[in-house]
Every structure is written in structure tokens, then in C-alpha cells.
Amino acid sequence: MHKIIALAVTVTTRCDGCIAVHSKKAIQLGAAEGEIAEAASR
Known about the structure:
This protein is mainly α. The chain has one domain (2-40). Helix content is 79%, strand content 0%.
């Protein structure tokens, strides 16, 4: 899922607004909480 990749990239750049947007969209597209947590922990 490309939103998970986008989330992982924004975590590395530490853009809080971008993290929020990509997390919300990933959830809307059906990403599991575990996937979000894994991407955010990178």
C-alpha cells in the first residue's frame, strides 16, 4: 500500500502534519493498526 510507504517516509523527515495526513488516509484505505504502527516506528 503506497500510503504506508508515504507514512514511513514522512516519519523519517519528522513532518508531524504529513504523518497525520498519511496515517488518516492509510486507515481510510483499510490499513491495519499494526501496519501503521510498524511504519511509524521506522
